[in-house]
Amino acid sequence: MAIFHLHMQTVKRSEGRSATAAAAYRAGVEIVDTRTGEVHDYTHRSGVIGTLAVLPNGGTVDDRSQLWNAAELAENRKNSVVAREVVVALPHELTDADRAVLTERFARWLADRHGVAVDAAIHAPDKAGDNRNHHAHLLMTTRQVERSPEGVQLGAKTRELDHAKTGGEHITEWRAQWEREINHVLELRQQPDRVSAAPVLGVPRVHLGPAASQIERRGGRTPAGDHNRAVDALRLEIHVLRADVAELDRQIAAAEREAARPTVTPTLRVGGGSMALAALKERSATAMPPPALDLSVLDAPPAPRPEVVQEKPKPAPSPATPAQPVTLANMPPEALKLVAGKLDAQIHALRQKLPDPETVAWQDERVAKLMQQAAEAEKQREKQRKDREQAQRQANAWRDAHKLQAKAHDAGLKRSPYLDQMADLADRCQQAARRLAEEMEHLKRQAAELVKSIADRVRRQQQPDRAQLDKLTKARADVVKELTTRRDRELVQKAREQDKQRGRDGPGLGR
To answer: Helix or strand or coil: residue 459?
Structure first.
């Protein structure tokens, strides 16, 4: 069962935290904090499935270290908020590739929505925890960003997220968008589950935090963990109950359609002809599904009533009056249920013929080829990034072992061939990574444009059938409304009769 979870927290300097340390840990890399000189090395941590740092308008970050050092240097107060982090649960029903696409779509939406940089990292489930707990961390700058020749430049603060009122409204907006993104991918992959951003019975899950998470990973229990387990159990129970209700609805609908099969009787007549008798003859003639219902029958005048030979003579009839047209208002309940059943069958058949246009587009071979090329470019870009970081680590290690030579190199007194070689390698890797990032974005734009073109073509092809589907859906809604109105009238009439009966019987106990 897919679980919805989205939690936002801030990275505050007053709590001893930093944006550089948070980014290094989430991405599993090494970042040197130029403000404090601290080295945050998490290159040996496991569980990082993939990372991507994005900018507004489809851009990507070439140097994660430069971005988060700039974020730290932009704040000068000891209690500054240096980053915001959004933690989301990823559906375990999807593949790693689908989860990567889902995370990137949401990261880019956040970047475009607030004009910030978003550094996304997908983590695998903890080995000692629930193996379905795929999740992503999205680290956001607290300032708007723009690209310049020197790198990423930070600008104005995102004050709308700081304010108590507007901040909550934006988080509600994030939750709604994340719900749409998840359900969109689940639908594309034909997964039956859907998620909802609405808390279960008003009780959301809570964030564990570093301390509680560590206790839970070691097999311990915490109040927050117990709360989340209770909410998850309740969600699972509601999910099962909803499935049971859906199955009961299906059985009831089938039973009602079976009950709507009329018997051959001369008393069930609509206007001048027997719709029930005609329907029974249609079903007995063939075992195929019922033929398409001609909705014009609801407005057409009835067929002339056949003459009936009377056993006893009767007075001469009065002059004939025009037959009353067959409408929903004067159709018997059995006939209305029969019409609803036929409409259900036609609607179901039409929907089977109308797959989602975007699903068709994403399954196109040309789109799949472009996405495969983009994935390969991303793989090569990640390799260049790691090679660059390795060159920087080797240069730093040499500096530690040859401090005097390093100072002479930096002062220009005597260049170190080894440091020059490592610097040249790091520069070439960075340039290659930038080219690959541009190629990856170009391929993804091509795929998106092709998807839009294919989806638009499919929609045009489906337009006549969708118009017919809308017509049938409206007709069924009218039938259901008429049945509901009649049922309500019957309930009101029954209540009135009960009131009259109680009035005739007089007062009860205590008289």
So the answer is: helix
Task: Tell me which residue of 92, 88, 96, 30 sits closest to 64, measured CA to CA.
Answer: 30
Q: Please tell me the distance from the alpha carbon of residue 27 to that of residue 375, in angstroms, as a whole number.
A: 18
Q: How far apart are CA 473 and CA 465, in angstroms?
A: 12
Q: Report in angstroms the alpha-carbon separations of 152 from 381, 398, 447.
A: 19, 29, 27
Say if residues 102 and 114 touch (Cβ distance below 8 Å).
no
CB 447 within 8 A of CB 370: yes
Q: Are strands 135-140 and 151-157 parallel, antiparallel or unpaired?
A: unpaired
**Residue 161 CB-density burial (10 A; 0-12 exposed, 13-18 middle, 19+ buried):** buried
Residue partners of 54: CB distance under 8 A and separation at least 6: 60, 61, 104, 107, 108, 111, 117, 118, 120
Helix axes of 164-188 and 96-114: crossing angle, nearest 10 degrees = 150
Six-digit token pair at 91? 């559906």
Query: Which of these, 428, 445, 386, lies nearest to 50 by C-alpha position?
Result: 386
Q: Note the pLDDT tens digit of each residue in 64-86.
A: 999 999 999 999 998 999 999 99
**pLDDT tens sequence across 242-261:** 555 555 556 656 655 665 65
